[in-house]
């Protein structure tokens, strides 16, 4: 009796919500009562819309309806139908974006994949349908594009939350923790492979094809993510490997990765520049044509990890670096932080002295995602509520004493969707400072090692899961990057996925990837002279007089975003001969992928 009356705790991610339910309550109704806009069309286990990932023993067993509706790899990955689950104890539930209504369009936004130029495309000479899948394995999200390898036509896009990140907020921290013991790593590998299989299935269904027609897969991601996929030992998903030289491409049967595609399918894992810079950076450099730019160019990929690449054409030198920003950019480590899901504050604007809040899904705010937190910090700086050291001013309007120190009330409880105030605390500001300092320090170390001044850089690209969400003017105001007076940042979107697609369909691009990886000089940020001093200095925010329009200095004005498209991707691809000597190194191996 006691058990029946007991309350169970439900942690709901990525919204960062916590709710209570009585033992025996339905999980579906508990989630809906907690404010989750869970997709459903039946509540009897027949539509399959209410998928969640559940961790912990606090749910009833798998029902017959779940066994018939869910694929084995989904069951293996911990996916359940919420309407079939009874709460029987504490449980952590992860609600994927695809199970939330209305879907956030950006979640499934296809990578802006430039088509492989017809002259570079290598049609696969095989009987029957031959499809290729390009996959970008982000720590937080997985995205992919399906191509017809006989025509080069792009057939479908697919995207999903990385199931191996279903451990809640601070994806990097949790993944690193889980990866640090063999059992945890094995479980993560299983989740990751299940995610790729679900992505392949989703893309194939969208294209009206079968996943068994997928004969080639190109997968890019951080080295830790690729090692996880291959079930290789790893020190930590984002750790510097100490190996600062390039690693060559690997081709292996897709079955070795337990990928549920054609039994004859081959998987191509592109080369990496070294250290913790992965094949995703190689793919990004190629998609942007950074290695062929006729002007000094810098690309910054912002995800759970941050990576940057710098190319100096006058020396034909490419430099790369990794600079993990910590969890703040994904909304973790922030008191009212949450991942970028419905209800998250994603934009904070100033209109006069008033703050304007915009949420994902245009619903009442329930928390702050990474871009919202950066915007909020920039707005507080501009309003004078916070000083250059990041200290909130006790007497400023909106600032009050909270449980953990000073805090600024961004949304009063009367206007929030959670029934409580949404605040930015002094500790939150410190987390934002750490994130922005890591990124800025990485870029400065890269420039210094290359002997390049910010004034000499003429192209700056922002890419990656968070890079595309960040408001450029806010990034400039908080000093996320140095001031590049001759460059206006260009959105590059999910360019790494586009690069994976290019390698999938062309031997020339696979050879070029080899050249990129083998010619890049990778820097270990922690070994860079003066790293600690530079990091400490970068914690400061820029002085108010250099903020955007206030400064009157055109060089420090917030940059305007430009659309990124095929023309931009190829704009830097001026015709420069391949370095045939470098290409030859892996020619035989790369050719084998197409045959
Ligand atoms: S609501 Fe239809 S299966 Fe759960």
UniProtKB/TrEMBL annotation:
InterPro entries: 2Fe-2S_ferredoxin-like_sf, 2Fe-2S_ferredoxin-type, 2Fe2S_fd_BS, Beta-grasp_dom_sf, Corrinoid_activation_enz, Raco-like_middle, Raco-like_middle_sf, RACo_C. SUPFAM superfamilies: 2Fe-2S ferredoxin-like. Transmembrane segments: none annotated. Signal peptide: none annotated. Residues 8-99 form the 2Fe-2S ferredoxin-type domain. GO terms for molecular function: 2 iron, 2 sulfur cluster binding. It holds the Pfam family RACo_C_ter. It comes from the Bacteria. This is Uncharacterized 2Fe-2 and 4Fe-4S clusters-containing protein, contains DUF4445 domain. It comes from Desulfatibacillum alkenivorans DSM 16219. The lineage of its organism: Bacteria, Pseudomonadati, Thermodesulfobacteriota, Desulfobacteria, Desulfobacterales.
């Amino acid at each position: 009796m006691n058990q029946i009356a007991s309350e169970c705790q439900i942690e709901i991610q990525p919204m960062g919500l916590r709710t209570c339910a009585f033992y025996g309550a339905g999980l579906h109704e508990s989630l809906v009562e907690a404010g989750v806009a869970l997709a459903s069309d039946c509540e009897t286990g027949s539509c399959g819309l209410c998928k969640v990932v559940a961790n912990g023993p606090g749910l009833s067993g798998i029902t017959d309806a779940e066994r018939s509706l869910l694929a084995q790899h989904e069951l293996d990955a911990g996916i359940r139908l919420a309407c079939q689950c009874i709460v029987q104890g504490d449980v952590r539930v992860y609600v994927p974006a695809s199970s939330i209504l209305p879907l956030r369009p950006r979640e499934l936004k296809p990578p802006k994949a430039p088509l492989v130029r017809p002259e570079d495309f290598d049609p696969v000479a095989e009987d029957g349908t031959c499809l290729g899948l390009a996959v970008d394995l982000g720590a937080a999200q997985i995205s992919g594009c399906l191509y017809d390898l006989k025509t080069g036509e792009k057939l479908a896009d697919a995207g999903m939350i990385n199931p191996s990140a279903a451990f809640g907020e601070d994806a990097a921290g949790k993944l690193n923790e889980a990866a640090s013991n063999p059992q945890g790593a094995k479980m993560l590998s299983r989740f990751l492979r299940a995610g790729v299989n679900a992505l392949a299935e989703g893309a194939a269904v969208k294209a009206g094809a079968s996943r068994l027609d997928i004969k080639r897969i190109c997968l890019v991601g951080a080295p830790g993510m690729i090692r996880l996929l291959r079930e290789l030992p790893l020190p930590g998903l984002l750790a510097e490997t100490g190996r600062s030289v390039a690693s060559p491409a690997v081709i292996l049967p897709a079955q070795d990765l337990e990928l549920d595609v054609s039994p004859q399918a081959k998987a191509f894992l592109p080369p990496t520049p070294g250290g913790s810079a992965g094949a995703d950076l190689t793919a990004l450099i190629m998609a942007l044509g950074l290695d062929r730019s006729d002007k000094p160019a810098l690309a910054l990929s912002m995800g759970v990890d941050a990576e940057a690449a710098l190319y100096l054409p006058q020396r034909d030198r490419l430099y790369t670096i990794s600079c993990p920003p910590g969890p703040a950019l994904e909304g973790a480590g922030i008191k009212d932080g949450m991942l970028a899901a419905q209800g998250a504050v994603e934009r904070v604007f100033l209109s006069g002295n008033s703050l304007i809040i915009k949420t994902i899904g245009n619903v009442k705010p329930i928390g702050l995602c990474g871009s919202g937190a950066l915007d909020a910090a920039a707005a507080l700086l501009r309003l004078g509520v916070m000083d250059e050291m990041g200290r909130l001013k006790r007497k400023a309007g909106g600032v009050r004493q909270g449980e953990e120190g000073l805090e600024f009330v961004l949304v009063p409880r009367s206007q929030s969707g959670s029934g409580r105030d949404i605040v930015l605390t002094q500790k939150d500001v410190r987390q934002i400072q750490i994130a922005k300092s890591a990124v800025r320090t990485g870029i400065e170390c890269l420039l210094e090692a290359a002997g390049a001044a910010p004034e000499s850089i003429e192209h700056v690209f922002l890419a990656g899961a968070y890079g595309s969400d960040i408001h450029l003017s806010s990034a400039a105001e908080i000093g996320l990057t140095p001031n590049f007076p001759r460059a206006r940042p260009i959105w590059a979107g999910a360019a790494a996925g586009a690069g994976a697609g290019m390698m999938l369909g062309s031997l020339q691009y696979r050879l070029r990837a080899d050249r990129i990886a083998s010619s890049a000089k990778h820097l270990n940020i922690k070994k860079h002279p003066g790293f600690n001093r530079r990091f400490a200095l970068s914690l400061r925010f820029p002085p108010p007089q250099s903020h955007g329009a206030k400064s009157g200095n055109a060089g420090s004005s917030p940059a305007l975003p430009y659309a990124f498209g095929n023309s931009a991707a190829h704009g830097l691809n001026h015709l420069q001969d391949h370095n045939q000597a470098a290409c030859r190194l892996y020619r035989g191996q790369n050719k084998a992928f197409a045959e």
